[in-house]
Amino acid sequence: MGKQVIQILTLSIVLMMNIAAYPQSTNILIVYGSFSGSTKEIVDSMKLYLANESMLVQTLPAEKKKIELSTYDLIIIGSAIRGNAPNPQVIEFIDANRDELSKKDVAVFAVCATITSSKEKKRANALTYPDKIAHGLNPISKNVFAGNLPSTGKKFDDYMGKLFLGIETGDFRNWEKIKKWTIEIKTGRLDATPNT
Ligand SMILES: Cc1cc2nc3c(=O)[nH]c(=O)nc-3n(C[C@H](O)[C@H](O)[C@H](O)COP(=O)(O)O)c2cc1C
Fold this sequence. Notes:
Layout: H1 2-21, E1 27-33, H2 38-52, E2 56-61, E3 74-82, E4 85-86, H3 88-96, H4 98-101, E5 105-112, H5 120-126, H6 129-134, E6 141-146, E7 148-149, H7 155-165, E8 170-171, H8 175-187
Parallel strand pairs: 1-2, 1-3, 3-5, 5-6
Antiparallel strand pairs: 3-4, 7-8
Helix pairs in contact: 2-8
Flavin mononucleotide binds at residues 34-39, 80-84, 111-114, 126, 147-149.
């Protein structure tokens, strides 16, 4: 009898040590809408940052399709902005999966140019982009990242961008800030205030 108790105790201790050594990973899905690739590059980096923290991460270009979301602990939705609006496929994805998404932890980020604008009104407007992307969902965290706006090669276009939007052409992605936010999601130190 005494021997059996010791055996059961030893087994329990080994089991507990295994559970501690291999904690259940957080399963994360990143859904994104990118027009010309810079948002996709951000998503690819996020995947690496999270994978380095032992998270399970999948990425998915947004489309109008209902998908199985029950296995994910967190869904990050990111979109580039064009014409003051998110990528339409992100909105279509949310509409197709709204019921399931509203029961999940969702974090949202925007990628745009005007968050770097010299004009305060344009920067303030850029801070409204995450809510446009969330499209009625209630994210646990949201952020706005400066994107990549290459020159069209036409000096007139660049001049008009500077004059009316207060923006310069160039790659303004701040990888440290992107990494910080991504890691904060993982550690649960979430800040609902958008920042760049
Ligand atoms: C045609 C066009 C329209 C854009 N419209 C906006 C806009 O309305 N507001 C903004 O902040 N940025 C705007 N941008 C900047 C993009 O959001 C930025 O370049 C972003 O990095 C693009 O991401 P993507 O490469 O994933 O498509 C625009 C860029 C282009 C090329």
